[in-house]
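Dear H.,

Thanks for agreeing to be a second pair of eyes. The structure we're designing against is below in token form, covering all 221 positions.
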């Protein structure tokens, strides 16, 4: 089994950008472009409420950890879980300073409502896979909390979605190592993308592979 060096880790959260649009992921994580829109701002506010690593909670047989750092050497990624609930369970793991065994359950907060696409499911699955590797356990399910409907949706981590996560991270590492920004694939998703002004989908569709290429050509002219 191959393991990545820590210096080569990618951001786990990038898998949602990658699943949404490979070009968007490259613009953010390779070309270091970013822009805010209403959706990204609302999402940041929701995550700020979820993250508070200095205030663990205990609710009966459940321990709540907020803003928990996670990583995977085998997938070469790191990130932060919004919330991890540790449920007292005989199939769980031991925790320092706690009696009994606890099963970690990741919970990811999202601003909107459940999507038809699976980028959120991929992200929460990747978090579970990191926790499994770190804590040497098996996590069968997690939850996505959507602010618009104000409730959790259960996600089961089956073999199909796990394989998709591994495959996507392999592709992300390959593109990152090549420093390659995929070409534009114009679609309905472009309308909700905060990077539309950086991506320039209509201008770059046929001629330019990257924003940097467009800018360099404009300067030369």
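And this is the sequence the design step returned. I haven't edited it by hand at all.
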């Amino acid at each position: 089994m191959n393991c990545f060096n820590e210096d080569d880790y990618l951001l786990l959260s990038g898998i949602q950008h990658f699943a949404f649009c490979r070009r968007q992921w490259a613009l953010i994580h390779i070309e270091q472009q970013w822009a805010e829109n209403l959706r990204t701002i609302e999402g940041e506010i929701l995550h700020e409420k979820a993250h508070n690593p200095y205030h663990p909670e205990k609710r009966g047989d459940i321990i709540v950890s907020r803003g928990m750092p996670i990583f995977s050497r085998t997938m070469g990624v790191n990130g932060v879980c919004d919330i991890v609930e540790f449920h007292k369970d005989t199939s769980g793991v031991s925790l320092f300073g706690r009696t009994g065994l606890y099963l970690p359950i990741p919970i990811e907060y999202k601003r909107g409502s459940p999507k038809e696409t699976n980028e959120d499911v991929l992200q929460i699955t990747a978090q579970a896979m990191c926790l499994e590797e770190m804590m040497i356990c098996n996590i069968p399910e997690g939850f996505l909390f959507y602010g618009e409907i104000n409730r959790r949706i259960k996600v089961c981590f089956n073999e199909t979605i796990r394989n998709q996560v591994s495959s996507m991270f392999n592709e992300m590492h390959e593109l990152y190592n090549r420093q390659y920004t995929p070409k534009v694939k114009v679609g309905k998703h472009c309308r909700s993308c905060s990077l539309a002004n950086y991506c320039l989908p209509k201008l770059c569709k046929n001629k330019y592979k990257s924003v940097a290429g467009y800018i360099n050509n404009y300067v030369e002219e």
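Two observations from my side: The CA atoms of residues 47 and 119 lie 17 Å apart. The mean pLDDT is 84.

Warmly,
E.
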